[in-house]
Amino acid sequence: MLQLNYSGLDLECGTDEAGRGCLAGPVTAAAVILPTHFKNQILNDSKQLSEKKRDSLLPIIEAEALCFSYTHIYQEEIDTINILNASILAMQKSIAKLQPAPEFIIVDGNKFKPYKNIPHETIIKGDGKFLSIAAASVLAKTYRDKYMNTIHEEFPMYNWKQNKGYPTKEHREAIRKYGITKYHRKSFKLLPSQLALEV
């Protein structure tokens, strides 16, 4: 089972994002503070879990967490401030919504910017080590997937319901065939040869 706490402080929040490598849609982050007695045998890095397991964990995390939140940063802002800054901004906006505010922040990965004066630690592969980061990864992934399923209805030819905006062969073929939508990240290399893409 994953560890519950890194800092030894009760109000420790875990944060993670989903959708960094996608060609379309937002980058979504979540932040979660779990109670000191929280236990769950199934909870893990969202990438290790099936969609069915993530969907079953979502209400458990939301019911048992002391507090949680999530934030979408959309493609226009990603194109303006770049994906790394957008990912960090999504995490910080999620942390800002937590009530009570955290005493310590643990972040999946190795990049973060100090938030207010709350101490933080970046943890590589943290979503496979700490329950609160894993919980944040499940929320971020699930809420982002729901959003991609919704915009799929508007542009079904890209099959976002299936690929969630990631650069699959099928997604790239659709871009080649139909061009791009308002949901695509224009700052990303959308096709291997940019020549084929007329913006």
TrEMBL record:
Keyword field: Cytoplasm, Endonuclease, Hydrolase, Manganese, Metal-binding, Nuclease
RNase H type-2 domain sequence ranges: 10-199
Class of the enzyme per the UniProt entry, highest EC level: hydrolase
Superkingdom, taxonomy of origin: Bacteria
Coiled-coil ranges (or none): none
Compartment(s) where it occurs, according to its Swiss-Prot or TrEMBL record: Cytoplasm
GO terms under cellular component: cytoplasm; ribonuclease H2 complex
InterPro entries: RNase_HII, RNase_HII/HIII, RNase_HII/HIII_dom, RNaseH-like_sf, RNaseH_sf
Catalysed reaction equations from the record: Endonucleolytic cleavage to 5'-phosphomonoester
Binding site for a divalent metal cation: 16-17, 108
GO MF, any single term: RNA-DNA hybrid ribonuclease activity
Record-listed E.C. numbers: 3.1.26.4
Endpoints of the signal sequence: none
One GO term (biological process): mismatch repair
Free-text remark on how the cofactor is bound: Manganese or magnesium. Binds 1 divalent metal ion per monomer in the absence of substrate. May bind a second metal ion after substrate binding.
UniProt entry tagged with the keyword Acetylation: no
PROSITE patterns: RNASE_H_2 (PS51975)
Pfam family, one: RNase_HII
UniProt entry tagged with the keyword Nuclease: yes
Function: Endonuclease that specifically degrades the RNA of RNA-DNA hybrids.
Family: Belongs to the RNase HII family.
Protein name according to UniProt: Ribonuclease HII
